[in-house]
Design goal:
six-stranded antiparallel beta sheet, five-stranded antiparallel beta sheet, 2 helices, mainly beta, disordered N terminus, 318 residues, single chain, 5% helix
């Protein structure tokens, strides 16, 4: 989130301070929303391009909703086995939808989309930006959901049985207001109730559980101008994590980095201009074909008309 502040200052300096996003049609009364999904190329200069090293582009979408002003700020995403996705937003909403794929397993659309407010421990929706700035999402084996927040840094557990959420173990560290626990994921190798949490600015990563306090696993390698925004374990015991940077000259840049169980980097996907990129903050991994992996990347548009909510799919083979 650090570069968001820089972006805002740049917009103010150019006389473009008003970047609020409003619905263009009647606003839905319930949670269901109508989402338009426009296909996007990974390389706009060569729309037919699919190969990016050992990563192969398998489709992407730019999402908009004319009947809701809340489909923005998508900060993390998780994919369920039935192609449903769950995501959390900067203003405390849970986004749910179902992905559609064609016969070649390329992402072509989504449907059955809805937005519901995340609940507060005391009941009712989370109140205001300081309480509702959700950044990370993890799904535990029993169906419970973990959500990490910045501004007021904490992790809430949403039980699978629908009981009110409660605060759980979080790293005992000091985070800047907009540089907190952006990265969050289940940590099944260390237990069914364990999770990983990562700090954006430091790149430090912790393992936590319901039974034990968080302990540091060290710092993930990254250039100083990049922030750690997402993490997810790999099936072979390795780890995938995403880092992101932004500046006025080069715009947004991301790297999805794959490391094996021994901690060695095995591959990376880098997106920067002129490739399609934005404020990517969410990543999840699924088993792919022939022993490969499928990655879904999601971007946070910062509620700005200058940015987009994107979902991109990349397949990787070892």
């Amino acid at each position: 989130m650090r570069w968001v502040l820089i972006a805002a200052l740049a917009l103010l300096a150019t006389g473009c301070a008003d970047r609020s996003v409003r619905a263009t049609g009647p606003v839905q009364a319930g949670p269901w929303i109508t989402v338009a999904a426009e296909p996007v190329a990974a390389d706009p200069t060569r729309p037919e391009r699919t190969d990016f090293g050992r990563f192969r582009y398998a489709g992407g979408l730019a999402l908009t909703a004319s009947d809701s002003n809340r489909l923005h700020g998508l900060s993390d995403i998780r994919v369920l086995p039935d192609n449903r996705i769950l995501g959390v937003t900067d203003e405390g909403d849970l986004f749910e939808a179902r992905l559609r794929f064609d016969g070649d397993s390329r992402l072509t659309g989504l449907d059955r989309a809805r937005l519901t407010p995340l609940q507060a421990p005391g009941g009712g929706p989370l109140g205001g930006k300081l309480e509702a700035d959700a950044e990370g999402l993890a799904l535990l084996k029993d169906g419970s959901r973990l959500v990490s927040f910045e501004q007021r840094h904490r992790i809430l557990l949403y039980p699978a049985d629908g009981q009110p959420p409660r605060q759980v173990n979080s790293p005992e560290a000091t985070f800047p207001p907009n540089g907190g626990l952006e990265a969050l994921s289940a940590d099944p190798a260390r237990g069914a109730d364990a999770w990983l949490a990562g700090g954006e600015e430091s790149g430090e990563i912790w393992t936590c559980s319901l039974r034990a306090p968080c302990r540091s696993l060290g710092t993930l390698p990254k250039p100083f101008e990049f922030g750690l925004v997402a993490v997810t374990p790999l099936p072979d015991g390795g780890l995938a994590y995403m880092i992101r940077a932004w500046d006025p000259l080069r715009g947004a840049r991301i790297a999805l980095i794959l490391r094996n169980a021994a901690g060695a980097e095995v591959d990376r996907l880098e997106l920067a201009r002129p490739l399609t990129t934005d404020n990517f903050e969410g990543v999840d991994v699924l088993p792919g074909k022939d022993g490969g992996l499928r990655f879904l990347l999601a971007s946070d548009d910062n509620f700005s008309t200058e940015q987009r909510t994107l979902l991109l799919v990349f397949d990787w083979k070892p």
